[in-house]
């Protein structure tokens, strides 16, 4: 009897072919028409992949008696930073997190002594040397580094995805073979396969608040690796096992 409601129609043809190979993994004997044991299994694949993207969060701030004065300074610094970043090929820049905060007198909380205005600039690129050089230049223009982090680009994750699907399917099939052999089964029939979203662990960001002097060397940065994990869930039926009689104690 053919399996019902299997969601394999939308799967790539190579995946369907790989699943069909499960039936051929055991000696070619007659498949039982009914009965069998249903197996619910999860196959997994994991890879360590070098990070290929660097993101730097920079902050510019100004403090002045008037909010408008502080805002003008921040706007001027940020405009200059955006112009400098725009000259660099392969580096994306965007502004985030604009804020204005009143600084009150410590003795009289109703009195405002000054205003503090802040804005963040996020820089992202795959050329670590060029991005580090840009960050060093912007630090000389009243921008400070708040955070540095490394990650995997969507293109890098997709590059490994198909191979990891195959690895996860091989893991699932091997589990099924081991269990089927222990049951004395001769065939495996695939009933259902589900491919959840893949996942990768993002490294913890590094903090870097100290500005670099013009004479100071650029910091040594290690991009590190991210862990990609992918799983497939499947339901298979082990067929051809002999019925075992259980003798009561």
From TrEMBL:
GO BP: any one term: DNA damage response
Short name of any one Pfam family annotated for the protein: SIMPL
UniProt keyword terms in alphabetical order: Signal
Gene3D superfamilies (UniProt xref): Protein of unknown function (DUF541), domain 1, Protein of unknown function (DUF541), domain 2
Signal peptide per UniProt: 1-32
PANTHER family: PERIPLASMIC IMMUNOGENIC PROTEIN, SLR1258 PROTEIN
The name this protein goes by in its record: SIMPL domain-containing protein
Species of origin: Thioalkalivibrio versutus
Upper taxonomic lineage: Bacteria, Pseudomonadati, Pseudomonadota, Gammaproteobacteria, Chromatiales
């Amino acid at each position: 009897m053919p399996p019902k409601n299997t969601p394999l129609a939308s799967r790539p043809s190579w995946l369907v072919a790989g699943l069909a190979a499960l039936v051929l993994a055991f000696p070619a004997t007659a498949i039982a028409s009914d009965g069998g044991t249903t197996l619910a299994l999860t196959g997994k694949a994991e890879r360590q992949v070098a990070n290929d993207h660097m993101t730097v969060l920079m902050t510019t701030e100004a403090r002045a008696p008037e909010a408008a004065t502080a805002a003008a300074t921040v706007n001027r610094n940020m405009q200059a930073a955006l112009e400098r970043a725009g000259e660099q090929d392969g580096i994306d820049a965007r502004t985030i997190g604009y804020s204005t905060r009143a600084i009150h007198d410590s003795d009289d909380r109703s009195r405002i002594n000054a205003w503090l205005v802040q804005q963040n600039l996020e820089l992202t690129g795959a050329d670590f040397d060029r991005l580090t050089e840009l960050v060093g230049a912007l630090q000389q223009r009243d921008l400070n580094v708040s955070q540095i982090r490394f990650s995997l680009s969507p293109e890098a994750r997709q590059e490994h995805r198909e191979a990891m699907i195959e690895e996860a399917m091989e893991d699932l099939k091997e589990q099924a073979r081991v269990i089927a052999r222990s049951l004395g089964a001769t065939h495996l029939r695939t009933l259902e396969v589900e491919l959840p979203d893949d996942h990768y662990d993002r490294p913890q960001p590094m903090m870097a608040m100290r500005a670099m002097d013009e004479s100071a060397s650029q910091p040594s940065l290690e991009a590190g690796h991210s862990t990609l994990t992918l799983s497939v869930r499947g339901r298979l039926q082990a067929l051809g096992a002999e019925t075992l009689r259980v003798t009561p104690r």
